[in-house]
Design brief:
By secondary structure, the protein is of the alpha/beta class. It has 3 domains: 4-30 and 242-387, Rossmann fold (3-Layer(aba) Sandwich), CATH 3.40.50.1980; 36-238, Nitrogenase molybdenum iron protein domain (Rossmann fold, 3-Layer(aba) Sandwich), CATH 3.40.50; 404-432, no CATH class. The protein has helices at residues 7-10, 21-28, 36-52, 54-65, 76-84, 88-107, 145-158, 177-186, 196-205, 222-230, 256-267, 282-293, 302-312, 321-331, 343-346, 364-369, 405-421, 425-432, and strands at residues 14-15, 113-115, 121-129, 132-136, 162-166, 190-192, 215-217, 236-237, 245-250, 274-280, 314-318, 335-339, 355-358, 395-403. The protein has a 6-stranded parallel sheet with strand order 1-11-10-9-12-13, sandwiched between helices. It has a 5-stranded parallel sheet with strand order 6-5-4-7-8, with helices on both faces. Strands 2-3-14 form a 3-stranded antiparallel sheet. A hairpin with a 5-residue loop joins strand 2 (113-115) and strand 3 (121-129). Helix 3 (36-52) crosses helix 4 (54-65). The longest helix has 20 residues, at 88-107. The termini are far apart.
Length: 441
């Protein structure tokens, strides 16, 4: 693991083709599941919650949050009071985000489908909404009311019967007031002052206070992401959404100051955040490096930014857009910003990303808050196979088959032969009973 002092190395652009195998591996293999200390800590917390239930949740709140819980569930009155006290400008911004989310997610709603591969055979599927889902909203270094909306609003659009929320308590035993207010605006049914891996375990297995859910969604730190992976055998999850990631693709036309702002914005999330900038051209890469270097010290969260970039960041030089696209496919970032000329034209060449921001004007910050897409996205390179959170995460498909009597007669012989070949005589007999059916019946 590189040390914080290696922030100086971040400012030295390196050509992609000159990366050592070990250096490239350190950039590409960034899943928190590779950290055995995190994995073992999470396993212990999950065991504790499964064994001791609410008592474990109270103990974890005291141990990690410095909170003594009088009630694990947040009283409705406290939620209503938080919304009433919310700054009007912030409330307007939250409501705008909710409206945009609802508008975009409604467009993503699936419909029932049927097809007929042969006469008399109908295959179909219908979208059925999940019964109860759990949303996780992080706390700690910063509070994220946006994450509340990103999880709860699509669930409401999908028609989920009950939406619960878990978020870490502060010293007063309650989650952040702005998180409570956002939950009220999003239509969350029940809120629990529980954070970290313990919250994930509680929603996965249930306790006396926290009900078991059908799916857990929402971002979190390395411990939350690991907990979601460990409970995935008991409950569905959205994706392993861990510390924030950004890959910037830039060319000669990119404004170095704009790129620097995007880098700061994502690196300030967490010391474990990953920010990589790939630039076509060495001169352009040096220009962007200098812009970042001269920006950091003015940032309120400069210490976090320096640790993030020093530990996990890089500025890389590519010889062409093809080399950029090849690296991006391997890196598979959570956020991909195409800060290039005619970004729309190169968009089809980039696909392994949680979400893509087309053009430098499409700031990642806009997507974090208000474009109506979602900021709950796969990290750790898993954008190769996972998608960002959407209304589809709150729906499961029920398939069905309808076979007419005539079609049953036509299927009987071939299915019987198939079943015989697999050594399943009862299957063969179930099929062959329909031989000669149809008109005779």
């Amino acid at each position: 693991m590189r040390g914080i002092s290696n922030i100086d190395n971040f400012f030295l652009p390196q050509r992609i083709q000159d990366l050592t195998p070990a250096r490239e591996q350190s950039l590409l293999e960034r899943s928190t599941s590779l950290d055995e200390a995190v994995a073992e800590s999470v396993r212990a917390i999950i065991r504790e919650v499964r064994t001791e239930g609410d008592d474990a949740l109270r103990s974890l709140a005291s141990r990690f949050d410095g909170a003594e819980l009088t009630s694990i569930e947040v009283p409705r009155q406290a939620v209503r009071e938080a919304l009433a006290a919310l700054d009007p400008e912030l409330r307007n911004a939250l409501e705008r985000t909710r409206r945009n989310l609802e508008s975009v997610q409604r467009a993503f709603l699936p419909t029932a489908q049927e097809t007929s591969p042969e006469p008399g055979i109908v295959g179909g599927r219908r979208p059925d909404t999940l019964d109860r889902v759990g949303v996780y909203a992080p706390g700690g270094r910063a509070t994220y009311p946006s994450s509340v909306l990103m999880g709860a609003a699509p669930a409401r659009v999908a028609g989920v019967r009950e939406v619960i929320l878990c978020s870490p308590p502060g010293p007063n035993g309650l989650p952040s007031a702005v998180v409570l207010a956002a939950a009220e605006l999003a239509g969350v049914d029940r809120i629990f002052a529980v954070g970290g891996a313990g919250a994930i375990a509680a929603m996965a297995y249930g306790t006396a206070s926290v009900p078991r859910v059908d799916r857990i969604v929402g971002p979190g730190n390395a411990y939350v992401a690991e907990a979601k992976l460990q409970v995935a055998g008991a409950v569905a999850i959205d994706s392993p959404a861990g510390p924030s990631e950004l890959l910037v693709i830039a060319d000669a036309g990119a404004d170095a100051r704009v790129i620097a702002r995007e880098v700061m914005a994502q690196a300030e999330h967490d010391p474990r955040a990953v920010v990589v900038v790939v630039v076509v051209g060495e001169e352009e890469a040096t220009r962007i490096s200098r812009a970042i270097e001269t920006t950091i010290d003015a940032e309120p969260r400069a210490a976090i930014i320096r640790e993030s970039l020093g530990e996990r960041g890089a500025i890389l030089v590519a010889s062409s857009m093809d080399e950029c696209a090849d690296f991006a496919a391997r890196f598979a970032p959570e956020h991909l910003l195409l800060a290039v000329d005619d970004a729309r034209a190169v968009l089809p060449r980039f696909r392994n990303a949680g979400t893509i921001f087309v053009g430098a004007r499409s700031s990642v910050a806009f997507g974090d808050y208000m474009t109506g897409a979602n900021h709950v996205l796969p990290t750790g390179g898993l954008a190769r196979s996972y998608s960002g959170l959407s209304v589809l995460d709150f729906i499961r498909w029920t398939t069905y088959q309808d076979v007419s009597v005539d079609a049953a007669a036509r299927l009987a012989s071939d299915v019987g032969v198939f079943a015989d070949a697999e050594g399943l005589p009862a299957h063969a007999a179930a099929a062959r009973q329909w031989l000669g059916a149809g008109a005779a019946r």
